[in-house]
Design brief:
By secondary structure, the protein is an alpha/beta fold. It is built from 10 helices and 16 strands. The strands form 5 sheets. It has a 5-stranded mixed beta sheet with strand order 1-7-6-4-5, sandwiched between helices. Strands 8-16-15-13-14 form a 5-stranded mixed beta sheet, sandwiched between helices.
């Protein structure tokens, strides 16, 4: 039994999926008063992938999961746990179980985890606890969001930012070693109002004196200036704390892999940590902000391009609504 509690973690496979349809900045300029130059200079985004009305989050996530399982050379039947990090499930009760069924992962327990753009990092740390305690050995972690469902396409301050997609990784028990070197997670609900997708209720009287709330979720609202200030201050701090727990210095990082929110944030964080551009993983220009999917999509792209290699040390950090933020230091492969 003691050996079970000494299990480490290896990240053995990754995969991604994005919708076929894309809208570039010129296309958005036909919807709202904006331009390619305005969007690109302020965000770094050139285009974004958008799910069609026929696309579902579970289908996109399942495709990404299949790619990750194939790379890890593991069968769906061998999975013990599936964690879906998302803020936009197809079903408000959750979509992880449907993905489990679509994969044929008959042995796996499945649940949704919501931490917005920090969801993938929070999910990685959550998965690690199940592995380290010896409860599960094979875990599939998916980050997926279809934020286009909840964007106000007349609001140029937010509609230019978001895209849709899914990314996944397989985490497996590794005896005698641990590739998750350190982590740090944070939340601050006092700043919740800076970035939200809020429910708006309208009272409906059932019988005299008894009313219930009926309503819908409102489009995404964001105070961009405050979110920027939060990110450039808190993200370097949380990465440094995670590095301290990993007993590593910034110089020992091979790659900085940040949530793909805004190029200015990526540049500012790298600058504050004194990490050169050559070590920063980024694909924001092609996909926009895909929330919980952004880190695993960028990871998968870099791995398949041969940029990230086995044994490379990666500092990953997610940050966003909640407000939540966190960092995980891990070795690939």
């Amino acid at each position: 039994m003691l050996e079970q509690f000494q299990a480490g973690i290896a990240i053995t496979g990754c995969g991604a999926c994005t919708p076929q349809a894309s809208v570039d900045n010129f296309g958005l300029s036909q919807i709202v008063e904006t331009s390619d130059e305005w969007i690109a200079t302020r965000t770094g985004i050139k285009q974004r992938r958008l799910a069609s009305p026929d696309d579902s989050l579970s289908e996109i996530a399942t495709y990404a999961a299949k790619n990750a399982l194939a790379m890890a050379a593991i069968a769906p039947e061998d999975l013990d746990l599936i964690i879906l990090a998302t803020s936009t499930p197809d079903d408000l009760f959750g979509s992880a179980s449907l993905i489990q069924a679509q994969l044929g992962a008959s042995r796996a327990v499945a649940f949704d985890l919501t931490a917005a753009c920090s969801g993938f990092v929070f999910g990685m740390v959550t998965a690690a606890q199940f592995i380290r305690t010896g409860v599960y050995r094979n875990v599939l972690l998916i980050g997926a969001d279809v934020l286009s469902r909840w964007v106000d396409w007349t609001d140029r301050s937010t509609c230019v930012l978001f895209g849709d997609g899914a990314g996944a990784v397989v985490l497996q028990a590794l005896e005698g070693s641990d590739r998750l070197l350190g982590f740090e997670l944070k939340s601050d609900g006092t700043q919740n109002h800076f970035l939200s997708l809020a429910y708006q209720a309208q009272p409906q009287e059932l019988i005299p004196g008894v009313s219930v709330a009926k309503g819908i979720y409102q489009p995404i609202t964001m105070n961009g200036q405050e979110v920027y200030r939060f990110a450039v201050k808190r993200v370097p701090e949380v990465i440094e704390k995670a590095l301290f727990r990993a007993n590593l210095s910034v110089d020992q990082i091979d790659w900085l892999l940040l949530h793909q929110a805004n190029q200015r944030i990526l540049d500012a964080v790298a600058s504050r940590l004194k990490i050169p551009d050559s070590k920063v993983i980024g694909n924001l220009a092609n996909y926009g902000n895909t929330s919980a999917a952004s880190i695993p999509i960028a990871l998968d792209e870099a791995v398949r391009q041969g940029k990230i290699k086995t044994g490379d040390t990666i500092a990953a950090s997610g940050f966003g609504a909640g407000l939540t933020w966190g960092a995980a230091i891990f070795q690939w492969g």
